[in-house]
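Can you please make up a protein's amino acid sequence together with its fold in C-alpha coordinate form to help me picture the idea?
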Amino acid sequence: MRNWTSGSILSFFSNDLAIDLGTSNTLVFAKGKGVVVSEPSMVAVNQKTGRIEAVGREAKDMLGRTPGNIVAIRPMKDGVIADFEHTENMLDYFIKKAHNRSILVRPRIVIGVPSEITQVEKRAVRDSALKARAAEVFLVEQAVAAAIGTGLPIREPTGNMIVDIGGGTTDIAVISMTGIVYSRSVRVAGDEMDQAIIQFIKRKYNLLIGERTAEEIKIAMGSSYPLDSALTMEIKGRDLVEGVPKILVISDEEIREALAETVNVITDAVRAALEQIPPELSADIVDRGIVLTGGGSLLKNLDKRLREETGLPVSMADDPLASVVLGAGMMLSDFNLLRKLCLD
Protein backbone atom coordinates (compact mmCIF):
# COMPACT_ATOMS: atom_id res chain seq x y z
CA MET A 1 0.00 0.00 0.00
CA ARG A 2 1.44 3.40 -0.96
CA ASN A 3 2.03 5.81 1.89
CA TRP A 4 0.27 9.05 0.89
CA THR A 5 1.78 11.35 3.48
CA SER A 6 2.19 15.10 3.51
CA GLY A 7 5.91 14.39 3.17
CA SER A 8 5.18 12.90 -0.24
CA ILE A 9 3.29 16.05 -1.20
CA LEU A 10 6.09 18.36 -0.13
CA SER A 11 8.66 16.41 -2.05
CA PHE A 12 6.90 16.81 -5.40
CA PHE A 13 9.73 19.01 -6.60
CA SER A 14 10.31 20.41 -10.08
CA ASN A 15 12.39 17.33 -10.97
CA ASP A 16 9.19 15.30 -11.34
CA LEU A 17 8.29 13.94 -14.75
CA ALA A 18 5.25 12.57 -16.54
CA ILE A 19 5.85 10.01 -19.27
CA ASP A 20 3.64 8.71 -22.04
CA LEU A 21 5.50 5.47 -22.73
CA GLY A 22 3.96 4.71 -26.11
CA THR A 23 4.47 1.86 -28.56
CA SER A 24 5.42 4.29 -31.34
CA ASN A 25 6.49 7.44 -29.48
CA THR A 26 7.55 8.39 -25.97
CA LEU A 27 6.82 11.86 -24.63
CA VAL A 28 8.23 13.31 -21.42
CA PHE A 29 6.72 16.26 -19.54
CA ALA A 30 8.88 18.08 -16.99
CA LYS A 31 7.10 19.96 -14.22
CA GLY A 32 7.29 23.69 -14.86
CA LYS A 33 8.70 23.22 -18.38
CA GLY A 34 6.08 21.29 -20.38
CA VAL A 35 6.88 18.61 -22.97
CA VAL A 36 10.67 18.31 -23.14
CA VAL A 37 11.06 15.02 -25.07
CA SER A 38 9.00 13.66 -27.97
CA GLU A 39 10.81 10.86 -29.78
CA PRO A 40 10.14 7.44 -31.35
CA SER A 41 10.16 4.51 -28.89
CA MET A 42 13.12 2.86 -30.57
CA VAL A 43 16.60 1.60 -29.74
CA ALA A 44 19.37 0.75 -32.27
CA VAL A 45 21.53 -2.11 -30.99
CA ASN A 46 24.82 -3.50 -32.28
CA GLN A 47 24.27 -7.27 -32.28
CA LYS A 48 27.99 -8.07 -32.27
CA THR A 49 28.86 -6.02 -29.19
CA GLY A 50 25.40 -5.65 -27.57
CA ARG A 51 26.08 -1.91 -27.42
CA ILE A 52 23.29 0.61 -27.89
CA GLU A 53 24.18 2.76 -30.89
CA ALA A 54 21.25 5.18 -30.75
CA VAL A 55 17.91 5.86 -29.04
CA GLY A 56 14.76 7.65 -30.19
CA ARG A 57 14.79 9.72 -33.38
CA GLU A 58 18.36 8.77 -34.21
CA ALA A 59 17.48 5.07 -33.95
CA LYS A 60 14.39 5.49 -36.13
CA ASP A 61 16.46 7.19 -38.83
CA MET A 62 18.52 4.00 -38.96
CA LEU A 63 15.44 1.81 -39.59
CA GLY A 64 15.95 -0.31 -42.70
CA ARG A 65 19.20 1.50 -43.50
CA THR A 66 21.71 -0.04 -41.10
CA PRO A 67 24.48 -2.58 -41.63
CA GLY A 68 23.39 -6.14 -40.80
CA ASN A 69 24.89 -6.10 -37.32
CA ILE A 70 22.86 -3.05 -36.18
CA VAL A 71 19.16 -3.64 -35.57
CA ALA A 72 16.49 -1.12 -34.68
CA ILE A 73 14.38 -2.52 -31.83
CA ARG A 74 11.00 -1.30 -30.64
CA PRO A 75 10.92 -2.43 -27.00
CA MET A 76 7.20 -1.65 -26.59
CA LYS A 77 4.47 -3.74 -28.23
CA ASP A 78 0.71 -3.20 -27.98
CA GLY A 79 1.24 -0.52 -25.34
CA VAL A 80 3.24 -2.74 -22.99
CA ILE A 81 6.87 -3.77 -22.51
CA ALA A 82 8.02 -6.52 -24.87
CA ASP A 83 11.75 -6.08 -24.20
CA PHE A 84 12.52 -5.27 -20.58
CA GLU A 85 16.23 -4.45 -20.89
CA HIS A 86 15.88 -2.11 -23.85
CA THR A 87 12.84 -0.34 -22.37
CA GLU A 88 14.93 0.38 -19.30
CA ASN A 89 17.81 1.73 -21.44
CA MET A 90 15.38 3.84 -23.47
CA LEU A 91 13.70 5.27 -20.34
CA ASP A 92 17.09 6.01 -18.79
CA TYR A 93 18.10 7.93 -21.94
CA PHE A 94 14.86 9.94 -22.06
CA ILE A 95 14.91 10.73 -18.32
CA LYS A 96 18.50 11.99 -18.57
CA LYS A 97 17.61 13.99 -21.68
CA ALA A 98 14.69 15.60 -19.83
CA HIS A 99 17.12 16.61 -17.05
CA ASN A 100 19.90 17.78 -19.39
CA ARG A 101 21.96 14.64 -18.87
CA SER A 102 22.09 15.05 -15.08
CA ILE A 103 22.68 11.66 -13.46
CA LEU A 104 22.12 12.89 -9.90
CA VAL A 105 18.40 13.55 -10.29
CA ARG A 106 15.97 10.85 -9.14
CA PRO A 107 12.54 12.09 -10.19
CA ARG A 108 9.09 10.93 -9.23
CA ILE A 109 7.37 9.78 -12.38
CA VAL A 110 3.74 9.48 -13.49
CA ILE A 111 3.38 7.03 -16.41
CA GLY A 112 0.32 6.50 -18.63
CA VAL A 113 -0.52 2.82 -19.30
CA PRO A 114 -3.33 1.03 -21.24
CA SER A 115 -6.49 0.41 -19.22
CA GLU A 116 -6.46 -3.40 -19.54
CA ILE A 117 -2.85 -3.79 -18.46
CA THR A 118 -2.17 -6.91 -16.35
CA GLN A 119 -0.48 -6.95 -12.93
CA VAL A 120 2.63 -8.50 -14.51
CA GLU A 121 2.74 -5.74 -17.16
CA LYS A 122 2.27 -3.05 -14.48
CA ARG A 123 5.18 -4.49 -12.53
CA ALA A 124 7.34 -4.48 -15.68
CA VAL A 125 6.63 -0.76 -16.29
CA ARG A 126 7.30 0.11 -12.63
CA ASP A 127 10.51 -1.93 -12.46
CA SER A 128 11.83 -0.46 -15.72
CA ALA A 129 11.23 3.09 -14.50
CA LEU A 130 12.78 2.39 -11.08
CA LYS A 131 15.86 0.84 -12.69
CA ALA A 132 16.05 3.90 -14.96
CA ARG A 133 16.55 6.07 -11.84
CA ALA A 134 12.97 6.97 -10.84
CA ALA A 135 12.53 7.57 -7.10
CA GLU A 136 8.84 6.62 -7.15
CA VAL A 137 6.45 5.54 -9.94
CA PHE A 138 2.73 6.23 -10.27
CA LEU A 139 0.71 4.54 -13.03
CA VAL A 140 -2.44 6.10 -14.49
CA GLU A 141 -4.73 4.96 -17.31
CA GLN A 142 -3.82 6.57 -20.63
CA ALA A 143 -7.40 7.40 -21.59
CA VAL A 144 -7.98 9.17 -18.26
CA ALA A 145 -4.73 11.13 -18.58
CA ALA A 146 -5.76 12.03 -22.15
CA ALA A 147 -9.17 13.26 -20.92
CA ILE A 148 -7.43 15.57 -18.43
CA GLY A 149 -4.92 16.65 -21.07
CA THR A 150 -7.68 17.58 -23.52
CA GLY A 151 -9.41 19.68 -20.85
CA LEU A 152 -12.53 17.55 -20.35
CA PRO A 153 -14.44 18.50 -17.15
CA ILE A 154 -13.85 15.11 -15.49
CA ARG A 155 -14.72 16.37 -11.98
CA GLU A 156 -18.31 17.22 -12.94
CA PRO A 157 -21.15 14.70 -12.43
CA THR A 158 -21.55 14.31 -16.20
CA GLY A 159 -20.27 11.66 -18.59
CA ASN A 160 -17.19 12.43 -20.70
CA MET A 161 -16.12 9.94 -23.36
CA ILE A 162 -12.63 9.84 -24.80
CA VAL A 163 -11.12 7.57 -27.45
CA ASP A 164 -7.30 7.55 -27.42
CA ILE A 165 -5.82 5.85 -30.50
CA GLY A 166 -2.11 5.39 -29.98
CA GLY A 167 0.48 3.25 -31.75
CA GLY A 168 -0.22 -0.05 -30.00
CA THR A 169 -3.61 0.34 -28.31
CA THR A 170 -6.91 2.15 -28.63
CA ASP A 171 -8.10 3.15 -25.15
CA ILE A 172 -11.73 4.12 -24.59
CA ALA A 173 -12.97 5.61 -21.33
CA VAL A 174 -16.07 7.23 -19.90
CA ILE A 175 -15.29 9.39 -16.89
CA SER A 176 -17.61 11.12 -14.42
CA MET A 177 -16.87 12.79 -11.06
CA THR A 178 -13.16 11.90 -11.36
CA GLY A 179 -14.12 8.23 -11.53
CA ILE A 180 -13.81 5.75 -14.38
CA VAL A 181 -17.30 4.52 -15.27
CA TYR A 182 -16.10 2.41 -18.19
CA SER A 183 -12.71 1.68 -19.70
CA ARG A 184 -11.56 -0.68 -22.38
CA SER A 185 -8.36 -1.17 -24.32
CA VAL A 186 -8.10 -2.93 -27.69
CA ARG A 187 -4.66 -3.80 -29.00
CA VAL A 188 -5.36 -2.39 -32.44
CA ALA A 189 -4.16 1.11 -33.36
CA GLY A 190 -1.64 2.99 -35.54
CA ASP A 191 0.94 0.17 -35.83
CA GLU A 192 -1.75 -2.26 -36.98
CA MET A 193 -2.69 0.25 -39.69
CA ASP A 194 0.94 0.29 -40.93
CA GLN A 195 1.02 -3.52 -41.04
CA ALA A 196 -2.31 -3.62 -42.89
CA ILE A 197 -0.86 -1.32 -45.59
CA ILE A 198 2.29 -3.50 -45.92
CA GLN A 199 0.20 -6.69 -46.28
CA PHE A 200 -2.27 -5.13 -48.75
CA ILE A 201 0.47 -3.90 -51.12
CA LYS A 202 2.31 -7.21 -50.85
CA ARG A 203 -0.88 -9.17 -51.62
CA LYS A 204 -2.14 -6.95 -54.44
CA TYR A 205 1.09 -5.94 -56.18
CA ASN A 206 3.74 -8.44 -54.98
CA LEU A 207 5.64 -5.39 -53.76
CA LEU A 208 7.44 -5.36 -50.44
CA ILE A 209 7.60 -2.02 -48.62
CA GLY A 210 9.13 -1.19 -45.22
CA GLU A 211 7.50 0.08 -42.03
CA ARG A 212 8.78 3.60 -42.65
CA THR A 213 7.13 3.71 -46.12
CA ALA A 214 3.87 2.28 -44.75
CA GLU A 215 3.76 4.98 -42.09
CA GLU A 216 4.42 7.68 -44.71
CA ILE A 217 1.55 6.33 -46.84
CA LYS A 218 -0.79 6.29 -43.81
CA ILE A 219 0.05 9.88 -42.90
CA ALA A 220 -0.11 11.22 -46.45
CA MET A 221 -3.26 9.50 -47.71
CA GLY A 222 -4.71 7.08 -45.14
CA SER A 223 -8.43 7.63 -44.52
CA SER A 224 -11.45 5.86 -43.08
CA TYR A 225 -14.12 7.66 -45.09
CA PRO A 226 -14.06 8.91 -48.73
CA LEU A 227 -12.03 12.10 -49.17
CA ASP A 228 -13.31 15.26 -50.87
CA SER A 229 -10.69 14.92 -53.60
CA ALA A 230 -8.83 11.76 -54.67
CA LEU A 231 -5.15 11.36 -53.77
CA THR A 232 -2.40 9.31 -55.39
CA MET A 233 1.14 8.61 -54.24
CA GLU A 234 4.26 7.16 -55.81
CA ILE A 235 5.84 4.47 -53.64
CA LYS A 236 9.07 2.49 -53.91
CA GLY A 237 9.61 -1.09 -52.83
CA ARG A 238 11.05 -4.44 -53.90
CA ASP A 239 9.26 -6.55 -56.50
CA LEU A 240 8.88 -10.00 -54.89
CA VAL A 241 8.67 -11.79 -58.27
CA GLU A 242 11.65 -10.20 -60.03
CA GLY A 243 13.57 -9.24 -56.89
CA VAL A 244 14.38 -5.73 -58.13
CA PRO A 245 13.38 -2.24 -56.84
CA LYS A 246 10.14 -0.97 -58.37
CA ILE A 247 8.02 2.20 -58.35
CA LEU A 248 4.22 2.04 -58.08
CA VAL A 249 1.41 4.60 -57.93
CA ILE A 250 -1.36 3.89 -55.41
CA SER A 251 -4.64 5.66 -54.64
CA ASP A 252 -6.34 6.75 -51.41
CA GLU A 253 -9.20 4.34 -52.21
CA GLU A 254 -6.82 1.38 -52.12
CA ILE A 255 -5.34 2.48 -48.80
CA ARG A 256 -8.86 2.94 -47.39
CA GLU A 257 -9.57 -0.65 -48.41
CA ALA A 258 -6.30 -1.77 -46.76
CA LEU A 259 -7.26 -0.03 -43.48
CA ALA A 260 -10.93 -1.07 -43.46
CA GLU A 261 -10.56 -4.02 -41.08
CA THR A 262 -8.44 -2.10 -38.54
CA VAL A 263 -10.83 0.87 -38.57
CA ASN A 264 -13.78 -1.52 -38.09
CA VAL A 265 -12.22 -2.94 -34.90
CA ILE A 266 -11.89 0.59 -33.49
CA THR A 267 -15.44 1.67 -34.43
CA ASP A 268 -16.86 -1.62 -33.03
CA ALA A 269 -15.05 -1.00 -29.72
CA VAL A 270 -16.55 2.51 -29.53
CA ARG A 271 -20.05 1.14 -30.21
CA ALA A 272 -19.57 -1.60 -27.58
CA ALA A 273 -18.62 1.11 -25.05
CA LEU A 274 -21.75 3.12 -25.86
CA GLU A 275 -23.90 0.02 -25.33
CA GLN A 276 -22.48 -0.65 -21.88
CA ILE A 277 -22.60 2.70 -20.11
CA PRO A 278 -25.48 3.73 -17.79
CA PRO A 279 -28.41 5.50 -19.55
CA GLU A 280 -27.94 8.80 -17.63
CA LEU A 281 -24.36 9.06 -18.83
CA SER A 282 -25.42 8.07 -22.35
CA ALA A 283 -27.64 11.15 -22.37
CA ASP A 284 -24.61 13.32 -21.44
CA ILE A 285 -22.57 11.80 -24.27
CA VAL A 286 -25.37 12.49 -26.76
CA ASP A 287 -25.02 16.18 -25.77
CA ARG A 288 -21.23 16.37 -25.37
CA GLY A 289 -20.15 13.78 -27.90
CA ILE A 290 -16.92 11.82 -28.17
CA VAL A 291 -13.43 13.32 -28.06
CA LEU A 292 -10.75 11.69 -30.24
CA THR A 293 -7.08 11.89 -29.34
CA GLY A 294 -3.78 10.06 -29.92
CA GLY A 295 -1.67 9.88 -33.09
CA GLY A 296 -3.97 7.30 -34.71
CA SER A 297 -6.91 9.72 -34.48
CA LEU A 298 -5.16 11.86 -37.13
CA LEU A 299 -6.25 9.32 -39.79
CA LYS A 300 -8.18 11.42 -42.29
CA ASN A 301 -11.96 11.55 -41.81
CA LEU A 302 -11.96 9.16 -38.82
CA ASP A 303 -14.15 11.68 -36.98
CA LYS A 304 -16.62 11.63 -39.90
CA ARG A 305 -16.68 7.85 -39.91
CA LEU A 306 -17.37 7.65 -36.16
CA ARG A 307 -20.03 10.35 -36.48
CA GLU A 308 -21.78 8.25 -39.09
CA GLU A 309 -21.42 5.01 -37.12
CA THR A 310 -22.65 6.40 -33.78
CA GLY A 311 -24.84 9.37 -34.73
CA LEU A 312 -23.01 11.38 -32.04
CA PRO A 313 -20.95 14.58 -32.25
CA VAL A 314 -17.24 13.73 -32.56
CA SER A 315 -14.48 16.27 -31.97
CA MET A 316 -10.69 16.17 -32.15
CA ALA A 317 -8.38 17.09 -29.26
CA ASP A 318 -6.31 20.26 -29.78
CA ASP A 319 -3.01 18.40 -29.43
CA PRO A 320 -3.78 14.71 -30.05
CA LEU A 321 -0.18 13.53 -29.85
CA ALA A 322 0.49 15.10 -26.45
CA SER A 323 -2.87 14.69 -24.64
CA VAL A 324 -1.76 11.76 -22.45
CA VAL A 325 1.52 13.31 -21.33
CA LEU A 326 -0.11 16.72 -20.73
CA GLY A 327 -2.80 15.09 -18.55
CA ALA A 328 -0.22 13.04 -16.64
CA GLY A 329 1.81 16.25 -16.26
CA MET A 330 -1.16 18.08 -14.72
CA MET A 331 -1.39 15.34 -12.09
CA LEU A 332 2.14 16.24 -10.94
CA SER A 333 0.66 19.49 -9.62
CA ASP A 334 -2.61 18.01 -8.33
CA PHE A 335 -1.82 15.48 -5.64
CA ASN A 336 -5.46 14.69 -4.77
CA LEU A 337 -6.28 13.94 -8.39
CA LEU A 338 -3.23 11.67 -8.70
CA ARG A 339 -4.20 9.81 -5.54
CA LYS A 340 -7.72 9.20 -6.87
CA LEU A 341 -6.60 8.01 -10.30
CA CYS A 342 -3.36 6.19 -9.54
CA LEU A 343 -3.50 2.41 -10.23
CA ASP A 344 -2.49 0.01 -7.45
Remarks:
- The chain has a mean pLDDT of 90.
